[in-house]
Amino acid sequence: MNTIVMSGETGVGKTRVVEALGVSRRVMLVDPLLQWSVPTAPAETVPGDGHQQWSAPTGPADLVVFDHLSFLPDAEDQVRQATAWCEAHQANLLLVVQFQEDLASLGISIPSDEHATVSLSRSPQAEALRISIRYPGETTDWNATFDTYLHVADSTALTRLLKTTTNRRSRKAS
Questions:
Q1: What CATH number is attached to the domain comprising 145?
Q2: Which domain of life is it from (predicted)?
Q3: Is the pLDDT assigned to residue 113 strictly greater than 50?
């Protein structure tokens, strides 16, 4: 299981990247704002079209996503339950916030060596989306620029992040 924290300012495109991830993966979406809008995603990709709060998926899920986490009531407890489910089912967990510091304000504590970070930004001069990924326990970032959200979701680095078990907690459990 990987725990991934995605951050970026309002309007940078975090939700669009999450939507693009859902096109080729079985995603369980928890979003108190329910903004899922991928018209090309197969019905089984978006179980129940998203949920406003955590409940264990009834079908298979490769990725559990909490989008707009800062708006979720009792976020700490819901993330704790989802983490336990993800560990038991070898699914990845993606927490989407505006700033990394938002996790602490919600009472969610994940040591930096136990989660990867994905930071999105956009230059005012360009429409390109800049992505920065830091793997657990590393001190350097992988950086790239993409022209569409789908290219971010399909990028080798993000695909690798979602496929490999880099979370130390998972390695200790195995």
A1: 3.40.50
A2: Bacteria
A3: yes
